[in-house]
Design goal:
With 210 residues, this protein is mainly α. Helix content is 83%, strand content 0%. It has helices at 2-8, 10-26, 31-66, 71-100, 106-130, 134-150, 156-160, 164-175, 182-207. The longest helix is centred in the N-terminal third of the chain and has 36 residues, at 31-66.
């Protein structure tokens, strides 16, 4: 249902597909920057997609729970559908980078995009569980993504934001292991996924019918 709902909103889907591409093209003259911006655009697109899917599910999922589905199965299915869409999108952009750029560490770029897709879906779903309206969620996501763009990566603020792992993986993929820590990036991504999952479970369970 999640994937079908996304496919029906063709204009919105086209804009979300275009967002990472535009980020990539605007820095096309700088190979390293273009790949980093592509990843940040994917993070924004994946989280936005998950946010609106979570808000839309508030209308459909109560009826499905009355039909016998558990809230855990519904949330798990929705997140799985979103992950399938965003990982496919990440693979498409990896193919673009492989064809368009001579990147020495293409598998590292693939890892960056895959991690970004996963964290984006979980962050957007958690935000969708926390807010009540689309405008509130969109503004909150805009603030988070904007701060992640502007914050200096070594600072505490950047580390506290959910997409720091994307920036660190970008440096590791483009500049090499000497410039960034793969372990730190994966630990941060894992912590983001765990915290996001905890928020999703706690808020969804609290909102389920008694």
């Amino acid at each position: 249902m999640t994937v079908r709902g996304i496919a029906r909103r063709r204009a919105s889907l086209a804009l979300l597909l275009a967002l990472p591409l535009l980020f990539y093209l605007v820095r096309h003259d700088l190979p390293g920057q273009s790949v980093r911006f592509l990843a940040l655009g994917l993070a924004w697109a994946a989280s936005t997609l998950a946010l609106f899917a979570a808000l839309a599910a508030r209308e459909s999922e109560p009826r499905l729970r009355l039909s016998g589905w558990s809230w855990r199965a519904l949330v798990g299915g929705r997140v799985a559908g979103l992950l399938a869409v965003t990982v496919l999108l990440a693979l498409a952009y990896l193919a673009l980078v492989a064809v368009d750029r001579q990147v020495d560490r293409t598998p590292a770029v693939g890892l960056m995009l895959a991690v970004t897709a996963c964290t984006g879906v979980v962050v957007g779903t958690a935000l969708g569980a926390a807010v009540r309206r689309e405008l509130e969620g969109a503004l909150a996501l805009f603030i988070i993504a904007g701060l992640q763009f502007m914050a200096d990566p070594p600072t505490l603020l950047a580390h506290l934001l959910p997409f720091w792992s994307t920036r660190e993986l970008g440096t590791w993929a483009i500049d090499g292991p000497g410039a960034a820590s793969l372990g730190a990036a994966l630990i941060h991504a894992g912590a983001t996924l765990l915290l996001g999952a905890a928020i999703i479970v706690a808020l969804t369970a609290r909102r389920r019918p008694r």
